[in-house]
Amino acid sequence: MIPQQSNQQQPLISGVNQRLINDIEKAVVREYQAIQFYNRLAELAPTKEARQAILDIRQDVIRHYNSFNQLFAQLSGRMPNIAGAPLPVSYRDGIREAIQDEMDAITFYKNISSSTQIPGIQHRFTRAVEDVARHEQILRNLLAQ
């Protein structure tokens, strides 16, 4: 007799299923791409102050990337599949795109945080949401200048 396969996701460790691992991998990729994006956006910045604000955002993004990447490796036992993404061509369009990406990240990270009962995972993504909301406001201020 062949055992029936279930469509339900089986936990890999208590409280962690494949969907959560996949979402964390997407978060790693998102942060990696954001690092590259903000590097380019900083190069396009019209003032030293705008450049520094963007580099400060990038530092938070690097911290998120390292945190999520470490978490992903611990849960999956492998490194994420990372691909590059298009980089900004103009400063103002790049700022607009970054604002939209930050808004999308807030929703995505809130969903990840609420999808688990593991405090360490919840904390990482809740903190990221706070940072990303701050980034969005900084970017809106840069766009208004």
Automatic annotation (TrEMBL):
InterPro entries per UniProt: Ferritin-like, Ferritin-like_SF
Gene3D superfamilies: 1.20.1260.10, 6.10.140.1960
Official protein name in the record: Ferritin-like domain-containing protein
Source organism of this protein record: Exobacillus caeni
